[in-house]
Design a protein that fits this description.
Number of helices: 10
Structural class: alpha/beta
Largest sheet: 7 strands, mixed
Radius of gyration: 22 Å
Helix content: 10-25%
Strand order of the largest sheet: 6-5-4-3-2-1-16
């Protein structure tokens, strides 16, 4: 089952000719999500062929470079005769502002737009085999980050061992893999534990939005397969980063190392470093070797944990 992030906007508050404002599109098999929606996001979605079939938008906070694309995107959905509901998740205390933003022109979409407040520590979306959790971040306004966490998967099924135990190939293999006891051809019983290995972990993708380095992020990103963390400034602006509620690339790398994350994608590059992403990436890699600064349009596949080994 695929899990892929497409970086639609990797610039800081001000877009550049090469980088748009914040937005990350995530595809998990047939489901599609959008994390933040800066100005121009819908054009980036067309430019990088993600499609518009998203069901949930997760907003980290309401600064313009993270939300001003929402009115245009929801209006485009309306022009395309969308009927399916759209869920928008937003930090506590911001529901009314998001509702007003969606209806800023005075016209409401012809499909349901349901705005939900995402409280830190809460599961904001639960599906059959994964959930999205909100966690506390440290910015200059009400803000949250999000962690997409898959459930553990069934262990590997040992077909050869099942045959050795006299289980005929067919439906009984599936029943064993589901955790049911079956009867072998000689009448003996075979338990799942005899042919199914231990559960295997699912994948975790974490998106912080704008934040200073925060302990809650370390907790949310523990052993994450992909941590997407803001890196607005280089080390020469550490003080500036702290005073504005942001992180340096090195600070993001130090956090990823503490969390024992597998990979670190750096985003939210200040326009003062236009053309210098390599510099911030190098500063991060001095601490965490799996750090990288994606360009707009880059797609990153998130493999299952065992694929890292």
């Amino acid at each position: 089952m695929s899990l892929e992030a497409t970086f639609l906007g990797t610039s800081g508050a001000v877009p550049t000719t090469r980088r748009n404002t914040s937005a990350v599109f995530v595809r998990r098999e047939g489901e599609r999500f959008l994390f933040d929606c800066g100005e121009g996001t819908q054009r980036q979605m067309m430019r990088f062929s993600t499609g518009f079939g998203i069901s949930h938008v997760f907003l980290t906070h309401l600064h313009g470079d993270h939300v001003l694309g929402l009115p245009g995107l929801t209006q485009t959905f309306d022009f395309n005769d969308r009927e399916e509901p759209l869920a928008v998740h937003t930090p506590p205390g911001t529901k009314r502002a998001v509702e007003n933003l969606v209806g800023v022109t005075g016209a409401r979409p012809g499909y349901p737009v349901r705005v939900h407040e995402a409280h830190p520590g809460a599961t904001v979306l639960r599906n059959d085999d994964y959930e999205v959790r909100a966690f506390e971040t440290d910015h200059r306004t009400q803000s949250v980050g999000y962690a997409l966490v898959e459930d553990d998967r069934r262990g590997r099924f040992d077909r050869e061992r099942a045959v050795e135990l006299g289980v005929p190939e067919g439906p009984k293999f599936s029943r064993l893999h589901r955790g049911e006891t079956v009867e072998a051809e000689d009448g003996t019983t075979v338990d799942p534990e005899q042919v199914v290995g231990p559960e295997r972990p699912g994948r975790t993708l974490v998106y912080t939005g704008d934040t200073r380095p925060a302990g809650a992020t370390v907790e949310a990103a523990t052993e994450a397969d992909l941590l997407i963390h803001e890196a607005t400034f280089a080390e020469d602006r550490t003080e500036r980063a702290g005073s504005t509620g942001h992180s340096t690339a090195r600070q993001a790398a130090e956090l990823a190392k503490r969390a024992d994350a597998k990979r670190l994608a750096l985003t939210h590059l200040s326009s003062r470093y236009a053309g210098e992403a390599d510099r911030l990436e190098a500063e991060a890699r001095e601490v965490f070797g799996s750090a990288f600064f994606p360009d707009d349009g880059d797609r990153v596949e998130v493999p299952y944990p065992e694929a890292h080994d």
